[in-house]
Amino acid sequence: MKPELLKPAHPITENELSAVESELGISLPIDYRNFILVHNGGRPVPCVFDIEWPENHQLAEIWKTSEVSRFLSIYSEEKANFVKYNKVNFIGRIPKSTIAIAYDPGGNLILLGVVGEYIGKVLFWVKDYEVEEGDIQNFGNVGIIANNFDGFLNSKIH
């Protein structure tokens, strides 16, 4: 079931989105680009998702599910600002090959792989088990939610 998105930010143009990609030095997967161009963030209802962890991972019993509080938006406001989350708040804290696209009620992040082996995958980053600062290739506190953004939005949120 595809969630309803409440309170999205104002729509953005293809040029505005391309400028953000350039500023962050990334290329967004097409399914996520389409989401941003149509919705530009918002609160999903329903909002719960399941998290997959490698076998015997220390977080597998603690973090089985979470929820999306809000998808980040490209706009000038401070709260849930896509650029600020990725260029200021979490730079050097989340794996370098990912970007933050949403957060949960506890401040954990929903990430999207933008390069490497996790490209296109939607991931869950646990802030309380953050890896050492500067070790931005470490995925020790990251679980997998979905293989792509469309799969996450259309079938993983319940």
Helix and strand arrangement:
Blueprint (H helix, E strand, L loop, with lengths): L3 E3 L7 H11 L5 H9 L4 E3 L2 E3 L14 E3 L2 E2 L10 H8 L8 E6 L5 E5 L8 E4 L16 E5 L2 H8 L2
Antiparallel strand pairs: 1-2, 3-4, 5-6, 6-7, 7-8, 8-9
Please tell me about this protein's structure.
By secondary structure, the chain is of the alpha+beta class. It has one domain (4-156): SMI1/KNR4-like (3-Layer(aba) Sandwich), CATH 3.40.1580. Helix content is 23%, strand content 22%. It contains four helices and nine strands; from the N terminus they run βααββββαββββα. It has helices at residues 14-24, 30-38, 82-89, 149-156, and strands at 4-6, 43-45, 48-50, 65-67, 70-71, 98-103, 109-113, 122-125, 142-146. It has a five-stranded antiparallel sheet with strand order 5-6-7-8-9. The chain has a two-stranded antiparallel ribbon with strand order 1-2. A two-stranded antiparallel sheet has the order 3-4. β7 (109-113) and β8 (122-125) form a beta hairpin. It is globular, with a radius of gyration of 15 Å. The mean pLDDT is 93.
- Overall, the morphology is globular
CATH fold call: SMI1/KNR4-like
Instruction: Strand order, main sheet: write it out.
Output: 5-6-7-8-9
Work out the helix count.
4
The CATH architecture assignment turns out to be 3-Layer(aba) Sandwich
Strand content: 15-25%
CA-CA gap between termini = 7 Å
